[in-house]
């Protein structure tokens, strides 16, 4: 074997190794970036999960809800829709923009909070009160409202609970409506005229995707759970329920596991870590992955060298 040929093969192998190493680094970097993007998206949903607020849920003779109010005085109520993951505190800001990207504790959050229209009375004494929440994946915030457009889902989930003024009240849902975001006839809170209230109920019945007759009248008080619709541009879905002094039993209570899972516990712990710690953990994982891949690459090249010197190359 000539010296020139041996040198050429060494150069080719070195160039090949350099190219492979560069490609490997790029692939690992892309994987790390993709992994971070997926993790970051998951964190947005994880921080919006109802379990994160479970410690503040109003329970008779306990001060948990008062503790949340002490953190943020804009907290005014709590809502739960039986058979869903909607189980959140309600806030009310000085306008309808404050809690679009701020959670119930008053901290910056892409998931926002469930908030009462600023024009409504905090004690839900208006005929129609409107609650807003983001439509989000993974069954967080008001992401499940659109499911009520399915008849079986709507039929199975009739009741909920609304806590305000230190007392639990029942919710009985009677319609799921779909409307345009700019329809002022529907998204018009605080109606105080009996005739207008009757017309409002007639309009709800007219545009309802699903409905049931529970005998709602202009003398009742209703609440709309309002969120974006995925079916149309500028579309909005709203689940409509009547507020009642009767507190309804949760028919799903015996089927649900109310304990926080290990995964949720880890997520809650992870959410409390400072950003630099999360970044350091992510960088460390990427570094370990790169070292392992380079080690495997080196072993493979060493094995190829032994095969070459063993006589495969003439």
Can you describe what's shown?
It is elongated and about 100 Å long. About 3% of the residues have low confidence. Helix content is 39%, strand content 19%. α1 runs antiparallel to α6. It has six helices and nine strands. A hairpin with a 2-residue loop joins β5 and β6. With 314 residues, the protein is of the alpha+beta class.
Give the SSE layout.
Layout: H1 3-48, H2 64-71, E1 75-81, E2 87-91, E3 114-116, E4 128-132, H3 151-156, E5 159-164, E6 167-180, H4 194-207, E7 208-211, E8 222-228, E9 235-244, H5 262-272, H6 275-312
Parallel strand pairs: 2-3, 4-8
Antiparallel strand pairs: 1-2, 1-5, 3-4, 5-6, 6-7, 6-9, 8-9
Helix pairs in contact: 1-6
* End-to-end separation: 8 Å
Write down how many β-strands occur, each being a DSSP E stretch of 2 or more residues. Answer: 9
Side-by-side strand order of the widest sheet: 1-2-3-4-8-9-6-5
- Given helix and strand content, the structural type is alpha+beta
Radius of gyration: 29 Å
**Element-level helix/strand string:** HHEEEEHEEHEEEHH
The amount of helix comes to: 25-40%
Largest sheet: 8 strands, mixed, barrel
Q: On the 0-100 scale, what is the average pLDDT? A: 83
Please state roughly what percent of the residues sit in beta strands, choosing from under 5%, 5-15%, 15-25%, 25-35%, 35-45% or over 45%: 15-25%
